[in-house]
TrEMBL record:
Residue ranges annotated for the LDLRAD1-like C-terminal domain, each copy included: 95-134
Organism (species): Rostratula benghalensis (greater painted-snipe)
Gene name for this UniProt entry: Ldlrad1
Kinase recorded as keyword: no
Name listed for the protein in its UniProt record: LRAD1 protein
Keyword Disulfide bond assigned: yes
Alphabetized UniProt keyword annotations: Disulfide bond
Length: 136
């Protein structure tokens, strides 16, 4: 089998197309949209039994064994697993909030321990402590 592991332009886990140049984000594999020239990202042997048919580097298993997300959804700031296991803890091993993020825990809504700074002082409480509205 061909090694299809690559890093996208924003340094996320990706899938290497047959042209050996195009690297698409993991979450664009098996999304019913052909992103590779020869549609190899949508082939039956790759997409027939998700997530088992995918190469392991494209999959992140959440702490709930019945839930998985694409590898590029790990550490993206959003609660894709539903329990924040893709953003927090030893399984995900994410870096601390970056400069574009505000750290607060617990977070309300779809984020985990960081929210995008653009949500600071927007009149909507995203941090349980309201720090996104008063301190950020």
């Amino acid at each position: 089998p061909v090694n299809r592991l690559c890093a996208t332009s924003n340094n996320q886990t990706g899938f290497l197309c047959d042209d050996r140049v195009t690297c698409i984000p993991a979450s664009q594999v098996c999304d019913r949209i052909s992103n590779c020239r020869n549609s190899e990202d949508e082939q039956e042997e790759l997409c027939g039994d998700l997530p088992h048919s995918l190469p392991g580097h494209l999959v992140f298993h959440c702490s709930n064994p019945s839930v998985w997300v694409y590898a590029d959804q790990r550490c993206n700031g959003r609660n894709d697993c539903g329990d924040c296991s893709d953003e927090m803890g030893s399984l995900a091993s994410c870096p601390l909030c970056g400069s574009e993020w505000w750290s607060c825990s617990p977070v309300l809504y779809e984020y985990c321990s960081c929210i995008p700074r653009r949500l600071c002082r927007d009149g909507i409480q995203h941090c349980h402590s309201w720090s996104d509205e008063y301190i950020c």
